[in-house]
Specification:
- With 361 residues, the protein is α+β, with helices and mostly antiparallel strands.
- The chain is built from 16 helices and nine strands.
- The strands form two sheets. Strands 8-7-6-5-9 form a five-stranded antiparallel sheet, with no helix packed on it. A four-stranded antiparallel sheet has the order 1-4-2-3.
- Helix 6 packs across helix 9, helix 8 packs antiparallel against helix 9 and helix 8 packs across helix 14.
């Protein structure tokens, strides 16, 4: 048994009829319970486990683990938790939470406190396939999970975009740092507005739109100037229709332009009380169709090109509960990729569509 290639899986989420693609073991990995190719019968497995202290978990090989957590028999919230724990996303989120929840903002808003976290985030981009990171970012969330998770997601997306731009390690870390701190000014917005379970009134929206100014003031000279400008400018538009300053064109910094794309992508794939989450492939079509005005079109097309490349040739769970492999994603219609299952190759449609990507660990 290759213990380094093994993962713990909760027995309660196994189901009758699942055919093992590899051997499974008891919780310690010391005893083989069932061999590859055997069909699961929960009652038989439960009896086996009783001999080993009625374990609630089993040890499975990584390929079996991925196959199991991709199936609809595993509840979405459980699948999300297991995936995020496996790749270390949960630990990163906890670290971000611990920072953002400190009472005295000035005690932690410093390069000494935040830059090590940005370093951890950029290391994840090295350690894991970006599709795995996308799966953590893009899990449909029943409700907005707060500033901390959004900030972490934008940091990860910023780091990816910096890599796609061909920037070096120092700049990648800087872009990740900008993503992490881009909404820090929201800590100055009243909670009844920040967490309102509805669309904001015009008056509340005006208060909310002050958060980039608050970010600018809070960051001041603590970090590289591009980090501060990204925080102030990520809602500006190239045509001058953005806020808070209504600047346009070259006045908007590159890091801010990248952060704007990351910010919108994460906002669109997350659920809010007043809107449903959208699938990533659908959001990419919205970017192509310029539904989000005033973005840097060159950066948008680079984002789309790389996202399409990352999703191509990866497994996806379809609406019928079975897997397929994405073979081609039309540049102008990413919501309807061409997928393959066995010998069948066809384009998805409204009746047969992609539900989510299969995680790679």
């Amino acid at each position: 048994m290759d213990s380094e290639n093994m993962k713990i899986f909760p027995v309660e989420y196994l189901w009758d009829g699942y055919v093992l693609n590899n051997d499974i073991f008891n919780q310690t990995g010391a005893v083989k319970l069932l061999p590859k190719g055997e069909k699961i019968v929960k009652s038989k497995l439960d009896k086996l486990l009783c001999y080993f202290g009625n374990d609630k978990n089993i040890m499975v090989y990584k390929d079996t683990y991925i196959d199991l957590i991709s199936d609809d028999h595993v509840p979405l919230n459980v699948r999300q938790k297991m995936t995020e724990q496996s790749v270390g996303y949960s630990e990163l989120q906890q670290n971000v939470d611990s920072l953002f929840h400190r009472a005295d903002l000035n005690s932690w808003l410093s390069s000494e406190s935040v830059e090590p976290l940005a370093e951890e985030i950029t290391q994840k981009l090295i350690d894991f396939d970006q599709i795995t990171i996308f799966s953590c970012i893009s899990f449909p969330r029943p409700m907005d999970e707060g500033l901390q998770r959004h900030s972490l997601n934008v940091a990860l997306l910023n780091g990816m975009q910096a890599e796609w731009l061909g920037l070096g390690g120092k700049e990648v870390k800087l872009y990740a740092l900008a993503g992490l701190l881009h909404d820090i000014g929201k800590t100055m917005i009243p909670e009844e507005i920040l967490n309102a379970p509805r669309k904001l009134t015009p008056e509340e929206l005006a208060v909310m739109r002050e958060h980039p100014v608050h970010s600018d003031h809070l960051l001041g000279t603590r970090f590289d100037d591009s980090v501060r400008l990204a925080a102030r400018q990520h809602h500006e538009k190239l045509d001058g229709s953005g806020y808070p300053d209504g600047i346009s064109g070259d006045a908007i910094g590159m890091c801010a332009r990248v952060t704007a794309i990351s910010d919108i992508f994460d906002a669109m794939v997350s659920a809010r009380s007043y809107k449903d989450a959208r699938l990533p492939l659908n959001v990419l079509t919205m970017f192509y169709d310029e539904e989000f005005k005033g973005l840097d079109r060159r950066l948008v097309m680079l984002f789309l090109k790389n996202m399409r490349a990352k999703y191509t040739d990866h497994e996806v769970m379809m609406s019928d509960g079975k897997k397929a492999v994405i073979r081609y994603i039309p540049p102008n219609d990413t919501a309807h990729p061409i997928v393959q299952r066995g010998e069948e190759v066809r384009q998805v449609d409204k009746d047969w569509y992609c539900k989510n990507m299969v995680t790679i660990l």
